[in-house]
Q: What sequence folds into this?
């Protein structure tokens, strides 16, 4: 099967090799050294301010979204949540569950966040802002420079879910004034799903230490304390952390995040150019779309996006990514992260052509 | 390195092979079928009552300990917690954090739970009980038949952390009147660390559905609902779940859990017989010790248990398992779970002999 989903994605051979190896015991100085290196490399790749730290969470990206909401915000905060899709909606639900006072900026699916919208929230006493870098459900990419400037001007704590955007799209905590940001193991890092990683600047760390969080598993103060000696409070996905170490070092050797941003940009552009003749409409404006994914709407009357996913899976041995919820019939997605070749993209385009011949799209 | 720790442990070749493979997209009927099979096999291996279900949690064993405390108990419960080591103590902390009224049965490290202790809590209005099957920090094995009878008599909801005991020690939810029990991927199942699994009887499920839990990641009602279609609410450690499927099927083919209990019993006995001449004292009574681990105290004056761990690691290429906290200098542990051969045990015993010659123990 060729995998064009947005996670888990196709891994590198080096990552697969580590997956075949026995897993070392981890309460050792040797493993602590690996973890300290992971922390330092992740901070560098998030372009995080000095003295930033990383919380290594065994759990999905949502675990770290929830951990962040619980550790960074309190009942006396007043936060802005951008809800432009399933993951933005998840932040809304998390604020509700944890009783963090919030205002929702509700965007239509695929609608960019503009200053025209954001300006209404200037000087309104907001203390926090939560949004995705890329809203994975539609591929919309938010203008993080604009958001960062807005947060800086308004002294707002900015928490970014960069789970699927990291490495695919330009991201800098320093330049974008981000206090804390997440990525996940199974996205552009192309490791097995199992872990998510939050990079925290000093203000984010201060909030974790000050907050008495009602959770053991999500007690970030405990993670930060254990992290000082390169450890986690609970048994982590050790193999994934070794694969992370290998991957981060390879990223550094290959030219860093900018090189990877560019690879994924070129790959996304290559794909988008190749499908212009097909009866699909890009669901988001091309200039506001992440490099990590292309969301497509079939334009032919009566063609179901979910059915396209099924036919391509069952008859051609390729996974594209279906949408859930109310977009299920209208939208499917093609991911550009992971170890994907041009030949594989050509193969997918040939499948689309075949579907068109068969009058299935 | 030979690995005698209690997790992550040495994996089977079959498990390693799956670790090297690409990971499939999981929101498919194909993966759902694997998950339904995982659920049914786990229920069978826990000897769970009919209509039991499984919560597949991406997270360490502690994640499922906390999830259980949050989902099964409420502020109007009155629970008994057996605290006989680090993991018992963790249940105490979890009840404190989540404000579940509790009474602690505090045992000395390595002290068995007897009816003489338990009888004081008959007819006292307790509604729940939490304990380990095997307290991994010392290897003490609790008399779960006695505990089960006590809970049944007193109409007490019994939640068992069988994280390290499952497969190593005899365990039956039906016979021991257990309502919910956990195991972890990196223990006797010998998979990579990343997931823990809770088997829930119908009463446990009822409590999850009734409880309005203040968490998204630990909302078990949501896991149960998604589980009906063989899915999880959030991206799980997909590779681990495929490795689980392969392992559970091999367990079933090889004679089931009783066969594995026996393998680990024989392995533990083999090791314990081989070290009788050495200056170590078993930390727990042999008739109340789990098959999963042997905790040893050096008897020679001035010999540090932690130093033994270090020397064996650095000079002989073997990991035994150090203890944390106040037992660190007094106790180290030798695990009997995972893919360990008699030859490897002989090698470890030879290392101990060598240490004795060198007057290091």
A:
């Amino acid at each position: 099967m060729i995998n064009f989903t947005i996670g888990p994605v196709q891994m590198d051979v080096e990552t697969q090799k580590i997956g075949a190896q026995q897993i070392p015991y981890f309460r050792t100085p040797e493993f602590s050294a690996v973890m300290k290196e992971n922390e330092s490399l992740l901070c560098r790749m998030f372009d995080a301010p000095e003295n930033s730290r990383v919380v290594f969470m065994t759990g999905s990206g949502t675990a770290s979204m929830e951990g962040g909401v619980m550790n960074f915000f309190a009942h006396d905060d007043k936060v802005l949540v951008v809800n432009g899709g399933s993951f933005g909606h998840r932040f809304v639900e998390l604020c509700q569950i944890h009783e963090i006072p919030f205002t929702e900026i509700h965007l239509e699916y695929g609608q960019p966040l503009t200053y025209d919208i954001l300006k209404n929230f200037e000087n309104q006493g907001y203390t926090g802002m939560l949004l995705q870098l890329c809203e994975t459900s539609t591929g919309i990419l938010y203008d993080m420079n604009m958001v960062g400037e807005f947060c800086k001007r308004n002294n707002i704590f900015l928490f970014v879910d960069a789970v699927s955007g990291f490495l695919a799209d330009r991201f800098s905590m320093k330049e974008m004034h981000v206090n804390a940001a997440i990525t996940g193991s199974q996205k552009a890092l192309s490791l097995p799903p199992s872990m998510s990683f939050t990079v925290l600047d000093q203000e984010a760390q201060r909030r974790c230490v000050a907050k008495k969080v009602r959770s053991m598993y999500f007690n970030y103060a405990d993670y930060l304390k254990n992290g000082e000696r390169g450890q986690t409070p609970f048994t982590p996905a050790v193999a994934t952390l070794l694969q992370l170490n290998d991957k981060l070092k390879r990223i550094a050797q290959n030219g860093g995040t900018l090189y990877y941003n560019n690879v994924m940009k070129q790959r996304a552009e290559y794909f988008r150019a190749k499908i212009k003749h097909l009866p699909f409409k890009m669901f988001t404006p091309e200039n506001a779309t992440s490099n990590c994914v292309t969301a497509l709407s079939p334009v032919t009357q009566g063609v179901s996006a979910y059915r396209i996913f099924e036919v391509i899976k069952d008859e051609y041995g390729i996974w594209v990514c279906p949408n859930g919820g109310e977009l299920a019939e209208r939208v499917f997605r093609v991911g550009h992260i992971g170890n994907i070749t041009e030949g594989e993209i050509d193969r997918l385009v040939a499948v689309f052509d075949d579907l068109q011949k068969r009058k299935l799209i």
Remarks:
- Chain A touches chain B through 55 residues (CB under 8 Å).
